[in-house]
Amino acid sequence: MTQAGHLQIEGVARRFRQVSVLDGITLAVARGEFVSLLGPSGCGKTTLLRILAGLLAPDSGSVRLGGRDLGALPPHRRNVGVVFQSYALFPHLTVAGNIAFGLRARRQTRAQIDSRVAEMLAMVQLGPLADRPVAQLSGGQQQRVAIARALAVSPDLVLLDEPLSALDRKLRETMQVELRTLLRRLGMTAIFVTHDQEEALALSDRVAVMHAGRIAQLGTPQAVYDRPATPFVLDFVGQATVLCGRIAAAAGGTVRVDTAYGPVHAPAALPQGEAVLVAVRPERITLGAPAGAEWTGVTLPLATRTYLGSRCLLHGAVAATERATVELPAAAAGDAAPGSTVALSWRVADTLLYPAPPA
User: Fold this and answer.
1) Which regions of the chain carry the CATH code 2.40.50.140?
2) Each residue's pLDDT tens digit, 100-112
3) CATH number given to 7-235
């Protein structure tokens, strides 16, 4: 990531009929950086990817790549590689033929094409399958062919539109590691579209969480997870315990929030009487009363207990507008059972606070 702004997206907007799909997106991506566009269906992430690929024109705004304005360039002149969700491989071509397709379109010599295809096949470990029809490949192998085809032309930017979503969980996790290792080794700049928050956190240098055509938060995976900027980001990226309350006292940069399950302390500077949402990540919570001034917590009844092998999830019986989830090592869950009342505690510094949404 040596060159800031290798990809510059400035104020990009797009409407379909009367619906605004992208609302002034601005984003700078460094050379060699891997950025994920994360969000629910309909948030605009795939529309933005199609604009970058040249498959769709923005209504306003600009896109520059390596200093070039892409606005007037057709897709085949942008030097952008695309890996589609469906892979979009050519069924009448072999593995080698698919990888060579873009090279032939650029009118490279036969020797150049053969050399590059061999290099790509070795890189994705498909050399023995070079002459096999792609229809005879597994999902993971087809995904590798699609990646090799996109990278064969040495693109300035790689766009990946949920390319792992059709794979089973174990294979998807394996391919995540392979994909990230490959792109890092090549120093490729990549934009990755996904609705899977775990995938975005695992792969990315930075995550752009999108909501209603805008970027709700942009940051490192750790920053987005540990300090969500909005209740939407908190809810979409990972799980959380979220309780309603009202600020009862404030002093020294810390507030006391009264909830239905006891007072909670949080680092904040908000006025007394304000309605708020108190939140904490499930793995930050322990069983037992607060152990000192640096700790806070609540007491509530348990609704369910879910055993997941190495860990256990406890869900509190709370109001419909609230939720309480605790994630513990299985051995630490003790005898906490549905129907029992438990004390939960966590560090004050881990408490997240947001203004309550309008009623």
Assistant:
1) 239-355
2) 998 888 888 899 9
3) 3.40.50.300
